[in-house]
TrEMBL record:
This is DHHA1 domain-containing protein. Residues 1-220 form the Alanyl-transfer RNA synthetases family profile domain. PROSITE patterns: AA_TRNA_LIGASE_II_ALA. SMART domains: tRNA_SAD.
């Protein structure tokens, strides 16, 4: 059976060992090693990645007590050099120890248990057995966790027989084991766990609570630790600096500045909408006088959105029984609209004829829209509607 280095020393990133077995299964190789530091997925912690003799390890999993390494190719010698993705392992280790400490503090301060732990490439969460947590509780939890990190408490790993478990006030005793691996944070808690852990709380670095979400009656608490937290801070610091530069504002004034921009923008769009109402009335009058004959008012616009064209169209149908056929080349869309007195069914026209011009859309009797990927076909469709459907064709 494989000697599991990840149980004894979480800081081994490179080692030499022998391949003990290899098997090709559906095109990938499943390899076992005499010694491995590759942690297989388990207990909320994802597997390690890295290389075996330069060949990428795609996944690592546990089968019974054996560790299986999945590779695309088989190394061509028995004695191999193994190498872990160090950054990934450190992130996992810091977050796993961080999770133990965070869960312990939630119990210590508020007697709230942890239901589950999940760690992925970009998030770490625990689900807490409570329907809600106040902002003050979150601040207290975060502060206490970081106090314990600063106190540099030892994290010890040792094995006990399962029948001794009651001595250690474990919140959960895993079943089916003769021995339990205990991870102790000195003076804080004992936890039965097979994961990789740092040796003192200060190696967690720092722990930040990021946000909470409600999840199936529990609170899902997102947190970040150590190296990942530093990367996250650097990225966000860059974003804030670049926004502050762009808005010529010191970072601490950004909330105020953005509030002002949003309210200016709201005011400007209210003014624009009022002016557009007036303008759309003028445009409607002009089109009504220019296109007196026939059942249609039809125009292609280059500068307005379909939403704006609907405002102009409603100005027309308020005064006339004609069917409006408008197109916006901004959006490659057309709008059919009338006030209900026309026998034309706008939605059916689109449904029955648009596809022949590579258009698609729909609507009801009085209003319909369609999108055309090709502007020439859009124009041909308008031509088709306004010449072929002049006789107020009733479409079933
Ligand atoms: Zn654990």
């Amino acid at each position: 059976m494989t000697n599991k280095l990840y149980y004894t020393d979480p800081f081994i990133y490179q080692w030499k060992t022998e391949i003990t077995a290899s098997e090709n299964k559906n095109g990938t190789w499943e390899i076992t090693l005499k010694d491995t530091a590759f942690y297989p997925e388990g207990g909320g912690q994802p597997c390690d990645l890295g290389t075996i003799d330069g060949i990428e390890v795609l996944a690592v999993r546990k089968e019974q007590d054996e560790v299986i390494h999945i590779l695309n190719e088989k190394p061509n010698r028995t004695l191999v050099n193994c190498s872990l993705n160090k950054e990934r392992r450190i992130e996992h280790t810091q977050h796993h120890s961080g999770q133990h400490l965070l869960s312990a503090v939630c119990v210590e301060l508020y007697d709230i248990g942890t239901v589950s732990f999940h760690l992925s490439n970009d998030t770490a969460t625990i689900d807490l057995n409570t329907p809600s947590l106040s902002r003050q509780q979150l601040l207290n939890i975060e502060a206490r966790v970081n106090d314990y990190i600063y106190e540099n408490r030892k994290i010890n790993v040792f094995y006990i027989n399962t029948n001794e478990a009651s001595k250690y006030a474990l919140r959960k005793v895993p079943s089916g084991h003769e021995q339990l691996r205990i991870v102790q944070i000195e003076g804080i808690e004992y936890n039965a766990c097979g994961g990789t852990h740092v040796q003192t709380t200060s190696q967690i670095g720092l722990l930040k609570l990021m946000k909470t979400e409600k999840h199936r009656g529990h609170v899902r608490l997102f947190f970040s630790c150590g190296m990942r937290l530093l990367k996250d801070y650097s990225k966000k610091n860059e974003w804030v600096s670049s926004i502050a530069n762009r808005l010529s504002s010191p970072p601490e004034k950004l909330p105020e500045k953005i509030e002002k921009l949003l309210s200016d923008n709201k005011e400007a769009s209210q003014k624009y909408n009022a002016l557009f109402e007036e303008l759309s009335y003028e445009i409607a009058q002009k089109l009504l006088s220019e296109q007196e004959d026939g059942p249609f008012i039809s125009t292609i616009f280059d500068q307005y959105s379909i939403k704006e064209l609907e405002i102009i169209a409603r100005n027309i149908t308020n005064q006339s029984d004609k069917t409006v056929v408008f197109a916006s080349t901004l959006e490659n869309k057309i709008l059919l609209l009338h006030n209900g007195t026309s026998p034309l069914h706008c939605g059916q026209i689109i449904k029955n004829h648009a596809a022949a011009f590579s258009g698609k859309g729909g609507g009801d009797a009085k209003k319909a829209q369609a999108f055309f990927s090709d502007i020439e076909q859009l124009k041909q469709f308008i031509e088709f509607v306004t010449t072929n459907l002049v006789q107020a064709e009733k479409i079933e």
